[in-house]
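Deliverable D5.2: sample structural annotation.
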Amino acid sequence: MALRILIVDDEAPARERLKRYLATLEGVDVIGEAGGGVQAVEMIEAQAPNLVLLDIQMPGLDGFDVVEALEDPPAIIFVTAYDQYAIRAFEVHALDYLLKPFSRERLAQAIHRAREAVAGGQDLSARLGPLLESLAAGGRHVTRLAVRDRECIRLLDTADVDWIGIKEEQVMV
């Protein structure tokens, strides 16, 4: 069974590099790519990849927000330039954590681990669910939202927000 992979990174060169590296591996099918968190959530729900290569720092929703927004998340490998998120990544049961820049061999190792996890039928939603609940119970929640308003970014206190909607990748508050 081929891994159905979605690449999520806000930097196009990083997405291209991942596609080039993945093209050298057997049994992988890159089904799409997303440049941001909102698009990633929509694509994951629509296309049901069994593996997501997910950047952490992105505008809008970051990588952790993406995982938390999904009811039934697929296997996740975080791909980032920042090492300070590694512990949190494994707290949300990521399969692996690739620190940029990484080698083809390191990516191949992560893909091999993902293939074993997916083939083994691990119930990833069952693994992620308890952790997300513990994060919510621990009081870790968003207190401010960054929202683009024409050409600027506004920070809104969540206590002041009654309703949020998304239309054509635009946030409406």
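Annotation notes: The helical segments are 12-23, 37-47, 63-69, 86-91, 104-119, 124-137. Residues 26 and 62 are 30 Å apart (CA to CA).
The annotation will be released with the project's public dataset once the embargo ends.
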